[in-house]
Design a protein that fits this description.
By secondary structure, the protein is mostly helical. It has helices at 3-17, 30-40, 45-58, 62-66, 70-77, 83-100, 109-112, 120-131, 140-149, 158-168, 174-187, 206-212. 61% of the residues lie in helices and 0% in strands. The protein is elongated and about 60 Å long. [4Fe-4S] cluster binds at residues 189, 196, 199, 205.
Length: 213
């Protein structure tokens, strides 16, 4: 199977079996999504979703969050991983939104990465989720799954993986492929022992072929 055929098989399978894939983070607008994605770094979406309702109730928008103090916000997110840094990042992010962006979340990667707590991966998530921009956020799931299947080859960094994926995925499908790969990695192609027995991608998967040759 060529790489082109592999991509076609994988994307076709996802399209037929997971047509409605989307983020599992709960949010109502771009500001809430940005808060949730910042909190989700090295933390489960489930834990984030348990915490964000309390944040949004108290700080519904950038103007409110920009006025928060560390001592006010920290107790709300202390169950999240790295609460010290994330408390500082959230407040700093809201303050920069007020100072540079009129209190609104910008919709370009170049602008988003200026915000505290926002790296390229987070910016790619925001832009691909909010308005389906063709940006590929590579987290640990995407990195692992794309390498196992053979969608990426010898990618040493998340940026290399991102570049390889974007090059081979049709532009209009990049935003949803991000969710397909994350969800597949979260529930099927798990880190320690992938559930190959229930996976529909084994026909195209290099890992499966290697393990069963």
């Amino acid at each position: 199977m060529t790489k082109k055929q592999r991509y076609e098989f994988v994307l076709d399978w996802f399209e037929h079996h997971m047509p409605e894939a989307e983020t599992e983070l709960l949010y109502d607008n771009a500001f809430q999504l940005l808060v949730a994605v910042i909190l989700s770094a090295q933390c489960t979406d489930k834990r984030v979703n348990m915490t964000t309702p309390f944040i949004f109730a108290r700080y519904p928008d950038a103007p409110a969050l920009a006025k928060a103090t560390f001592d006010e916000l920290f107790p709300i997110i202390k169950s999240i991983s790295y609460p010290n840094n994330k408390t500082k990042h959230l407040i700093g992010m809201a303050q920069m939104l007020m100072e540079r962006f009129g209190g609104e979340v910008p919709h370009t990667v170049e602008e988003l990465v200026q915000l505290p707590g926002v790296g390229r991966k987070t910016a790619n998530v925001i832009t691909s989720v909010i308005d389906a921009q063709p940006n590929m956020a590579v987290d640990t799931h995407v990195f692992r799954v794309s390498a196992r299947i053979g969608l990426t080859t010898n990618a040493k960094t998340v940026l290399q993986a991102e570049q390889q994926l974007i090059k081979s995925i049709p532009k209009e499908k990049i935003h949803i492929t991000h969710h397909w790969l994350i969800l597949h990695g979260r529930y099927t192609c798990v880190a320690r022992k992938p559930k190959c027995e229930i996976c529909g991608l084994t026909q195209a998967c290099k890992y499966y072929k290697t393990m069963n040759d």
